[in-house]
Each structure stands twice: as structure tokens, then as C-alpha cells.
Amino acid sequence: MDLDYDQISKEAQEALDAVLGREEPLKPRDRMAIPAQPMPAQPSGVRVGNMDEVALGYTEAQARVEAMRCLQCKNAPCIDGCPVRIDIPAFVIACADGDFQKAIDIIKANSLLPAICGRVCPQEVQCQIDCTVGRALKDVEKSVSIGRLERYVADLERAQGKAHAPAVKAETGKKVAVIGSGPASITVAADVRREGHAVTVFEAFHKPGGVMMYGIPEFRLPKDIVQGEIDTLREMGVEIQTNFVVGRTRRLQDLLEKDGYDAVFVGTGAGLPKFMSIPGENLVGVYSANEYLTRVNLMRAFDKENADTPVLPSRRTAVLGGGNVAMDAARCAVRMGAAEVHLVYRRTEKEMPARIEEIAHAKEEGVIFHTLENGISFRGGDDGRVHTMECLRYELGEPDDSGRRRPVPIKGSEFLMDVDCVIVAIGNDSNPLIKQTTPAIETNRWGNILVDDTGKTTMDAVYAGGDIVLGAATVILAMGEGRRAAASINALLG
Predict the structure, then answer these.
(1) Number of helices (H), then strands (E), in the chain
(2) How far apart are the first and last CA of the chain?
(3) Domains, the chain, ranges and CATH?
(4) Cβ within 8 Å of residue 217, ≥6 positions away
(5) Does residue 386 contact residue 285 with C-beta atoms inside 8 Å?
(6) Given this model, what pLDDT does residue 276 score?
(7) pLDDT greater than 70 at residue 116
(8) How does pLDDT run across 334-354, given as a tens digit for each residue?
(9) What confidence tier does 479 reach under pLDDT thresholds 50, 70, 90?
(10) Rounded to whole angstroms, how far apart are CA atoms 191 and 225?
(11) Read out DSSP for 374-420?
């Protein structure tokens, strides 16, 4: 096997030297002895001064060595953990063999967004959590790095100019409307268009891409990658209308009854930010994470020379929350020039839902963590701008409905924190506009649209998926919902 040893770790070199000279194939114990390959990244002191992608991606040698760690388990627990059921062992062994085109072809049989999923999906709680290697080593971080391999082969295909739009069957004369342009909607649009049906995507913002465009920062997901997926849809013949708010610009019923659409998919996401209902939330300088990230990402407030998007300069920013959105907001605040960024979370770090990698990157970039604390009010000055946050300390009690231990306030533990910017990142509710304007669609008490096993809503010919059904979830889960709904729409129209 021809590998560039300069591109892999010394430990990996030693492990390979011990086994590659043999004639017999690698045994499981040999594969287990190969150490996990770390992801190359920008140094923390450099990356805080730019919005470029932090993770730099594997080299070919790193990808092949990492793939060699796979045991090719017969029961393939990794597939069970994948919401779209990619044949993971097959694509990984293709990587180990250096057949990267075969690897990406296997992935694309089930996933349309490998470059995106490889970057932002939480593989450590999905396909990698039950990896036999990680379980044997008692550390999910030592599982085979499936997501990093997925990213590598997707990026390689794009860099070599080999990426192409899926083939489209003959026109059927049927029309499908897709509302929203996030991962679930992109999946539906592509799967339905492949069957020859005309597809129009209606997007409320001025750029398509949904949360991948407005919510996830450039340093985690470069926007040219998202734009590439949108361009693929257009190459397939999908029409995309931006600045079009279904429910306001046009009612959903009108799409079916007046505009001649045969089916509709609703993928409007979870775009309604949650607030804490505490004093001072209306002060200047208190943002929802949605607003802050939209200003920074979609409206490019970080590009001060070329964008006029207002974001108040901050000296001391507090971010409330412990999920990926909170990490994104905190790391954006660092790059926007805050001298101090404090992340405040009412449980311990163990209970944080954010990815381990995102927590580590935030710490490397200087974000100061305050666990078992939370804000309970904001105070402002005569200028109407926030200047102080009153906080309370907590201890953990019994588990709640989420399975995590409940935070219990400690009486008399109040204290003040000086801040001039607060970003509330405690989650989102489902977009309420479709429900408000379409009484025939039923929702649960959280505003999520109710669907059956096929993805169909309570309204004829209307399907839904992604965060509008699941609540705030992941890109790959939204894609899984989209695939299910697309199959149902194709069956309906077939």
C-alpha cells in the first residue's frame, strides 16, 4: 500500500509498520491497534481572527488509515445509527482501498448532502455511537471517524469536478410545491424531481438553504458548499422562488386549489426562537441566537468592509444555553470582536447537548464556561442597553423527561455579571405561520405538524418533515424525514 507517511501520526506509522509487511490481510486486532486520526484544524489563535473553516479536512493518507480501522462488522451497527441508512462499511472499505469514487457513489445512493452531513451532523450520537471499535476502546471519540471520511470523499469529488446532478426521468406533467429550502426540503425536491415531476421551492429569505445558510456559521459550514447543493437542484430543473412567504405571499390552499400543484411538502423548520420570559429581555443588546446568527451569517455582519448589517459592538458577551447553537453564537461573538465571551448553562458540561468537538473548539477559542448557572433578569441603563445580568446558581436533582438531571435553584445564590450583550440560545419552536393560515393542518401542543407514518399531514396531498415535525433536530434527521415524504409523494403521483 502506497501511503505518504509524512501525512499521518507517528503512532499510526508504527502500527502500520507492524502489519503492512505481512501477506495475510489485517486482522481485527491489527485494525484496533491503529490510532484514530485527528482532524487537522486552524490554530485557535489564528482562526479567532477569521471566519474560515476551522476543520481543514483529512489528507488522502489520513483518510485511508482512518478507514483501515473499520472492522467490517457483519451486523453493521453503524448503519442502524444512520437516519438514511448509508452502507457505511462498504463506503469505508472503499476509502481504505483508495477507491474514493466508489465510496462517494455508495454514500450518494442514500444521502444527497454528504459534504454538509460530514461537517455538521452529530455522528458521535448516531452512526459512531455503536461503532464496535469505539465500544471496545470504551470511548466514542475513538470510533471510526465516519463523518470525517464522508466529508473527505465528498470534498474530493467536488475538487476534482466530478460532482454531477442526478438524472431526471421524463416529465410527468405533475407539479409539487416545496415550502422552505432547508435539508428536508432539498431532499424532497431532488427525490421528487428525479421521478420527472415539476418542483418549485418557495423560500421566505432572499437566499435558499434554510438553517444551513442563516444559522450555521461559515467556520463550521462554508456557504459555497450549501450553494453548490442549491445549484444542483437548479441543474435538475427545480425552480426556486425566494422572498416568497407561504401563508402571506400566498396561502398553502391556493397552491393546491388555484395554482395547480398536485402535492405540497412543508419544510419550514423550527424558526421561532424561545425566550426566557424574564425581566429585561427587550433591552437593546439582548438577542435571540436566531437573530444574531442570521445577522452574522446570512447578512454577513462579520464582513464589515462590504456589509452594512448592524450588530452592536460588544466588550463582554454572555450566551445562555449549552447546545450547538449556543456554541455557534459564542464562537461568532469571539470573531465579532468581544473581549470576553461567557457561556452560561444551568446544568453541567456532561449534560450539554452540543457536540464534543464544538465544546472543545469553543474552549480553545477562549470562551469562558459557567455551568450550573443561569440568567434570571437583565438590567439596563438610561440608554436602554443591557449592562448587567442577574444570575442564579443551581445544583442537579433527579432526571427530568429528557433523561438529564434537573437543575434545581440554590436559594440565596444570586449574583450579578457585567455584560453589554446577551444571546439567548435555549432552543426554537416550530414556525407557526402555516398552522395559523391553514386550519386543516393539525399540530401538537408545541406547534409541530402532525404526520402519519408516510409523512402525510391531516390535509390531503400535503406532507411535512424536518424540524417543523421533529422540533429542532439535525440535518441528517431532517433528510431522513424528507426521504420518507418524497417516497410518499412519488407514490401518490405515480
Answers:
(1) 20, 16
(2) 49
(3) 5-159 (1.10.1060.10), 175-271+430-493 (3.50.50.60), 275-427 (3.50.50.60)
(4) 51, 293, 296, 297, 328, 331, 332
(5) yes
(6) 94
(7) yes
(8) 999 999 999 999 999 999 999
(9) very high
(10) 19
(11) EEEEEEE-TTSBEEEEEEEEEEEEEE-TTSSEEEEEPTT--EEEE-S
CB 373 within 8 A of CB 394: yes
- Per-residue burial over 326-353, b if 16 or more Cβ lie within 10 Å, else e, is bbbbbbbbbbbebebbbbbbbbbeebbb
Distance CA 2, CA 119 (A): 28
- Strands 263-266 and 175-179 come out as parallel
Contact 108, 115 (CB under 8 A): no
Beta carbons of 289 and 325 less than 8 angstroms apart: yes
In the block, residue with C-alpha cell 454514500: 107
Instruction: Count the neighbouring beta carbons within 10 Å of the beta carbon of residue 259.
Output: 12
Strand 340-345 relative to strand 421-424, pairing:
unpaired
Question: What CA–CA distance (Å, rounded) separates 218 from 145?
Answer: 22
d(CA 207, CA 199): 18
Radius of gyration for the chain, computed over Cα atoms and rounded to the nearest angstrom:
24
Cα separation, 264 vs 176, in Å, equals: 6
Residue 180 in contact with residue 210, Cβ under 8 Å? yes
Closest CA to 40 of 88, 8, 4: 8
Q: So what's the pLDDT on residue 100?
A: 97
The residue written with cell numbers 465544546 in the block is 359
Q: Which residues pair with 369 in a beta bridge?
A: 343
- Alpha helix locations (H) across 137-196? 146-159, 183-194
Please indicate, yes or no, whether the overall pTM of this predicted structure exceeds 0.85: yes
- The answer to whether the beta carbons of residues 140 and 129 sit under 8 Å apart is yes
What does the block give as the cell for 156?
474530493
CB-based contacts of 411, cutoff 8 Å, min separation 6? none
Q: To which H or E segment does residue 96 belong? A: helix 88-96
Taking residue 75's Cβ as centre, other Cβ atoms within 10 Å add up to 9
Q: Is 262 helix (H, G, I), strand (E, B) or coil?
A: coil
